[in-house]
Write the C-alpha coordinates for this entry.
Amino acid sequence: MSINKKELEDLILRIEGLEKRLDKLDPISKRKLPSKKEQVEEIQNNLEEWSKKFPSLDVEFELLKMLDWLKANQKRKKDYKAFFRNWLRKSSNSVEKKVEEVYRYIYGCNNRDDCSTQESEYKDMYIFCKKCSAQKTIIKSIKS
Ligand SMILES: [Zn+2]
Protein backbone atom coordinates (compact mmCIF):
# COMPACT_ATOMS: atom_id res chain seq x y z
CA MET A 1 0.00 0.00 0.00
CA SER A 2 1.36 3.39 -0.89
CA ILE A 3 0.25 6.58 0.69
CA ASN A 4 0.55 9.97 -0.93
CA LYS A 5 1.60 13.19 0.71
CA LYS A 6 -1.93 14.52 0.97
CA GLU A 7 -3.20 11.37 2.64
CA LEU A 8 -0.29 11.45 5.05
CA GLU A 9 -0.99 15.06 5.97
CA ASP A 10 -4.66 14.24 6.55
CA LEU A 11 -3.66 11.33 8.73
CA ILE A 12 -1.31 13.45 10.81
CA LEU A 13 -4.01 16.10 11.24
CA ARG A 14 -6.48 13.44 12.39
CA ILE A 15 -3.95 12.04 14.90
CA GLU A 16 -3.24 15.54 16.22
CA GLY A 17 -6.95 16.11 16.59
CA LEU A 18 -7.35 12.87 18.52
CA GLU A 19 -4.43 13.77 20.79
CA LYS A 20 -5.98 17.13 21.57
CA ARG A 21 -9.26 15.49 22.46
CA LEU A 22 -7.48 12.96 24.65
CA ASP A 23 -5.58 15.70 26.43
CA LYS A 24 -8.86 17.48 27.17
CA LEU A 25 -10.31 14.31 28.67
CA ASP A 26 -7.25 13.53 30.76
CA PRO A 27 -4.68 16.30 30.66
CA ILE A 28 -1.17 15.02 31.11
CA SER A 29 0.02 18.31 32.57
CA LYS A 30 -2.70 18.26 35.21
CA ARG A 31 -2.14 14.71 36.36
CA LYS A 32 -0.68 15.04 39.81
CA LEU A 33 1.62 12.38 41.12
CA PRO A 34 2.89 12.21 44.68
CA SER A 35 6.44 13.37 45.42
CA LYS A 36 9.42 11.14 44.73
CA LYS A 37 9.76 10.36 48.46
CA GLU A 38 6.13 9.29 48.74
CA GLN A 39 6.31 7.21 45.58
CA VAL A 40 9.49 5.43 46.68
CA GLU A 41 7.98 4.79 50.10
CA GLU A 42 4.96 3.26 48.46
CA ILE A 43 7.19 0.96 46.45
CA GLN A 44 9.10 0.01 49.60
CA ASN A 45 5.86 -0.77 51.39
CA ASN A 46 4.83 -3.08 48.58
CA LEU A 47 8.08 -4.94 48.00
CA GLU A 48 6.36 -8.25 48.69
CA GLU A 49 3.92 -7.64 45.85
CA TRP A 50 6.72 -6.64 43.50
CA SER A 51 8.63 -9.73 44.50
CA LYS A 52 5.66 -11.93 43.57
CA LYS A 53 5.54 -10.35 40.15
CA PHE A 54 9.27 -10.70 39.60
CA PRO A 55 10.27 -13.84 41.48
CA SER A 56 13.66 -14.12 39.81
CA LEU A 57 14.79 -10.80 41.23
CA ASP A 58 15.81 -9.38 44.56
CA VAL A 59 13.40 -6.45 44.27
CA GLU A 60 14.75 -4.61 47.31
CA PHE A 61 18.23 -4.69 45.83
CA GLU A 62 16.87 -3.68 42.43
CA LEU A 63 15.15 -0.68 44.00
CA LEU A 64 18.43 0.44 45.56
CA LYS A 65 20.17 -0.08 42.25
CA MET A 66 17.53 1.96 40.45
CA LEU A 67 17.73 4.83 42.97
CA ASP A 68 21.51 4.79 42.68
CA TRP A 69 21.26 4.86 38.92
CA LEU A 70 18.82 7.78 38.98
CA LYS A 71 21.11 9.67 41.33
CA ALA A 72 24.25 8.93 39.34
CA ASN A 73 22.57 9.97 36.11
CA GLN A 74 20.82 12.93 37.74
CA LYS A 75 17.46 11.83 36.45
CA ARG A 76 14.11 12.65 37.91
CA LYS A 77 11.03 10.70 36.98
CA LYS A 78 7.42 11.63 37.18
CA ASP A 79 6.12 8.15 37.78
CA TYR A 80 8.58 6.10 39.80
CA LYS A 81 6.30 3.12 39.98
CA ALA A 82 6.13 2.87 36.19
CA PHE A 83 9.85 3.38 35.95
CA PHE A 84 10.48 0.69 38.57
CA ARG A 85 8.20 -1.72 36.71
CA ASN A 86 10.18 -1.18 33.51
CA TRP A 87 13.42 -1.47 35.42
CA LEU A 88 12.36 -4.84 36.87
CA ARG A 89 11.13 -6.05 33.51
CA LYS A 90 14.49 -5.28 31.93
CA SER A 91 16.40 -6.87 34.82
CA SER A 92 14.32 -10.00 34.78
CA ASN A 93 14.78 -10.33 31.01
CA SER A 94 18.53 -10.13 31.41
CA VAL A 95 18.47 -12.66 34.28
CA GLU A 96 16.52 -15.10 32.13
CA LYS A 97 18.89 -14.54 29.26
CA LYS A 98 21.88 -15.31 31.48
CA VAL A 99 20.26 -18.52 32.69
CA GLU A 100 19.55 -19.52 29.12
CA GLU A 101 23.07 -18.83 28.06
CA VAL A 102 24.80 -21.22 30.44
CA TYR A 103 27.17 -23.31 28.43
CA ARG A 104 28.96 -26.54 29.12
CA TYR A 105 32.31 -27.01 27.53
CA ILE A 106 33.67 -30.22 26.11
CA TYR A 107 37.41 -30.54 26.45
CA GLY A 108 39.24 -32.90 24.16
CA CYS A 109 42.27 -33.37 22.01
CA ASN A 110 42.27 -31.87 18.58
CA ASN A 111 44.42 -34.49 16.88
CA ARG A 112 43.17 -37.74 18.29
CA ASP A 113 39.64 -39.05 18.24
CA ASP A 114 40.41 -41.88 20.66
CA CYS A 115 41.21 -39.57 23.56
CA SER A 116 38.56 -39.15 26.16
CA THR A 117 36.59 -35.94 26.39
CA GLN A 118 35.70 -34.16 29.55
CA GLU A 119 32.83 -31.86 30.28
CA SER A 120 33.02 -28.76 32.40
CA GLU A 121 30.96 -25.67 33.05
CA TYR A 122 34.12 -23.58 33.12
CA LYS A 123 35.91 -22.45 30.04
CA ASP A 124 39.26 -21.89 31.67
CA MET A 125 40.01 -25.41 32.90
CA TYR A 126 43.44 -26.92 32.65
CA ILE A 127 42.91 -30.54 31.65
CA PHE A 128 45.99 -32.48 30.72
CA CYS A 129 45.96 -35.47 28.36
CA LYS A 130 48.58 -38.06 29.26
CA LYS A 131 48.34 -39.78 25.88
CA CYS A 132 49.08 -36.61 23.96
CA SER A 133 51.21 -35.02 26.66
CA ALA A 134 49.29 -31.88 25.95
CA GLN A 135 46.57 -29.76 27.35
CA LYS A 136 43.06 -30.58 26.19
CA THR A 137 41.24 -27.69 24.57
CA ILE A 138 37.58 -26.87 24.23
CA ILE A 139 36.35 -28.71 21.17
CA LYS A 140 32.66 -27.99 21.62
CA SER A 141 30.36 -25.86 23.71
CA ILE A 142 26.80 -26.83 24.37
CA LYS A 143 23.94 -24.90 25.87
CA SER A 144 22.63 -26.56 28.98
ZN1 LIG B 1 44.80 -36.70 23.95
